[in-house]
Specification:
The structure holds two protein chains of two kinds. Chain A is of the alpha/beta class. Chain A is about 35% helix and about 25% strand. Chain A folds into two domains: about 1-60 and about 120-280, P-loop containing nucleotide triphosphate hydrolases (Rossmann fold), CATH 3.40.50; about 65-115, Alpha-Beta Plaits (2-Layer Sandwich). Chain A has nine helices and eleven strands. In chain A, α1 (about 15-25) crosses α9 (about 265-280) and α4 (about 145-160) runs parallel beside α5. The radius of gyration of chain A is 22 Å and the shape is elongated. Chain A starts with a strand and ends with a helix. Chain B is of the alpha/beta class. Helix content of chain B is about 35%, strand content about 25%. Chain B contains ten helices and eleven strands. In chain B, α5 (about 145-165) packs parallel to α6. The two termini of chain B are about 15 Å apart. Classes of the chains: A alpha/beta, B alpha/beta. The interface between A and B is large, with 62 and 62 residues.
Chain lengths: ~280, ~290
């Protein structure tokens, strides 16, 4: 079972929920957590574990072979991403822009653009007391998070059995990175906060999940801080609200220190139990 | 005209609340660009009137002409994005997975594949309740190319600011360090980094600053919720000092942020609080940093 924890808006509690839920579920189930917010991975700050494996992650880009090239310009013509330019008697490759479609490389009449790996980030696998967690971390300056997210998911699929609960801490937003995380999940938990920003971004996230044909439910965080808009919307749309995590400065303080919340705050633990029961019942 | 980009690395640190307050204070002297096109919120706080809308097209998606297609499967073979699948004995394109690279179209032996430009979102121009011009957008559901929409929002906002001789362009960026953030940074005069006194706030600040540094941009920092964790605040301040980043403001944990938001008000319009004075001061500080 693969469950993504996502939100349109950033800072609504994805990492808090992912890390606490993983730790809680791991008391009775086999669990792995994958931090797919590769632009800003934070899960490791909240969990203790030893590094058991790491590897660089790369995407494939063309590399110009000057000797074989006849400067026909076909590569520049076929590239839709402006990642290749012919300037004078040189072919320039712009790696950040390349989407690894292979068209330039395979359509080159003289095989002068072999594809080679370029590092875009790394994957780290940690083992904690009760469960494993995996982190993807994008190199600064790289534009595309999607290939790295895909590789982390692939790694998790390979290394962990199908009956393991796989939790994905997804990136914020509604575009490519979160789509990559959500489309390979069986279920999505959307976490939001009870404010107009939370509501606006929840609606965007819900529409995205509907386009992707994903099953989802909602957790309301910082419940009580703003207004009732989120609840009314979920009611009207028939969206299941699994739990409401109360607004509590003590939760923010524990988070600020990088501590798990449920061992110390009873109200949070009650909400987490509701979510764990819900997850346990997913088929 | 000075261009200020407000970013944070981590989401939810208060970027939009600060940016909207600055917009409100500066009134018609500032043009605002909401570059968080994935989850645009600025219009909610500034009561945008959506006076102009246009479709935004970018990127392409392969479309297979099923009449002409022989189902030879060559397209499926070359597609690196697993965007072509056989459904009911017919090769079909998954538009969400397709990256629009044209490879399939180029090698199709019967020229049965064409690429169609896609609408990926809506682009808007508004006037706000504070008489700012607001340039904003809404990315389509499950759309790609948010970087291009960010560039469009920023370019149009900049044109407006220059044409009307405005003093400031205030850009509200998106979380993260990837393509939309990179698109929002180019050409800025100052990056304002909004962080919070949490371990993740600090971690993400360091990452986003590495990016800002690679653009050779001047940076200033706002530490939100500084009283949540004195130790982390101390670490953030040490980091700022080490990197010569000016501290524009330190703001305490305050539920006024959410309360003002729930009434669709910027903090500077919401009653008389310490917070209001602090935000006014922080905007003054940012202007001084720009001059310095």
């Amino acid at each position: 079972m693969k469950i993504a924890i996502a939100s349109g808006k950033g800072g609504t509690g994805k990492t808090t929920l992912s890390t606490n839920l993983s730790s809680y579920l791991a008391q009775s189930r086999q669990v792995v957590l994958a931090d797919l917010d590769v632009e800003e991975p934070n899960s490791k700050l909240f969990l203790k574990g030893n590094l058991v494996f790491e590897k660089p992650c790369s995407k494939m880009i063309p590399q110009w072979d000057k000797e074989a090239c006849t400067l026909c310009g076909k590569c520049e013509e076929v590239c839709r991403f402006n990642a290749i330019m012919k300037i004078g008697d040189e072919i320039l490759v712009f790696p950040e822009l390349c989407h690894s479609c292979y068209a330039c490389s395979e359509l080159c009449p003289t095989d002068s653009l072999p594809m080679v790996p370029r590092k875009i980030g790394e994957l780290k696998h940690f083992r904690g007391d009760h469960f494993d967690f995996i982190e993807g971390r994008l190199d600064i300056g790289e534009e595309q998070a999607v290939p790295l997210i895909g590789q982390v998911i692939e790694y998790v699929d390979e290394k962990f059995s199908a009956d393991t609960i796989k939790l994905f801490d997804a990136p914020p937003g509604t575009s490519c990175p979160v789509i990559e995380a959500a489309r390979s999940s069986d279920f999505v938990i959307l976490i939001t906060e009870s404010t107009p920003f939370g509501l606006n971004d929840l609606k965007l996230a819900v529409d995205t999940m509907r386009v992707l044909n994903r099953k989802f439910s909602v957790v309301i965080n910082r419940y009580g801080i703003g207004d009732n808009g989120v609840e009314e919307y979920c009611d009207a749309e028939g969206i299941c609200v699994i739990a409401k995590i109360p607004n509590d400065r003590r939760i923010a303080e524990l988070y600020s220190k990088g501590e798990l919340v449920y061992p110390k705050i009873q109200e949070f633990k009650i909400a987490l139990e509701q979510i764990a029961r819900f997850v346990g019942g997913l088929k | 005209m000075k261009e200020i980009v407000i970013i944070s690395g981590k989401g939810g640190t208060g970027k939009t609340s600060f940016a909207a307050s600055f917009a409100y204070l500066e009134k018609e002297n500032a043009v605002i660009a909401d570059c968080d096109v994935d989850a645009a919120n600025m219009h909610l706080l500034l009561d945008a009137d959506f006076r102009y809308r246009e479709d935004f097209y970018s990127g392409e998606v392969a479309v297979i002409d099923e009449e002409a297609c022989m189902n030879c499967g060559e397209c499926k073979e070359v597609c690196r994005f697993d965007a072509i699948n056989v459904i009911d004995d017919q090769h079909r394109v998954d538009p969400i997975a397709c990256e629009g690279c044209w490879y399939c179209s180029r090698i199709c032996p019967v020229e049965a594949i064409d690429l169609k430009t896609q609408k990926i979102g809506d682009f808007y121009l508004s006037t706000t309740k504070a008489r700012n011009d607001l340039v904003h957008a809404k990315l389509g559901f499950a759309a790609e190319n948010s970087g291009k929409l960010v560039t469009k929002v920023k370019t149009e906002a900049k044109k407006l600011a220059l044409a009307n001789k405005k003093a400031f362009l205030i850009v509200d960026g998106s979380p993260g360090v990837g393509c939309p953030v990179i698109s929002s940074l180019s050409g800025a005069d100052l990056a304002v980094l909004v962080t919070e006194a949490t371990v993740s706030g600090l971690h993400d600040l360091k990452r986003v600053y590495t990016l800002v540094k690679s653009f050779n941009l001047k940076a200033a920092c706002i530490i939100n919720k500084y009283d949540l964790n004195a130790e982390v605040t101390h670490e953030i301040e040490a980091f700022l000092q080490e990197e010569h980043i000016s501290l524009a403001a330190k703001v305490a944990y305050d539920e006024t942020f959410a309360k003002a938001l729930s009434q669709a008000k910027t903090i500077v319009e919401y009653g008389d609080s310490n917070l209001k004075a602090e935000i006014e001061q922080s905007w003054q500080n940012i202007k001084n940093i720009l001059r310095g």
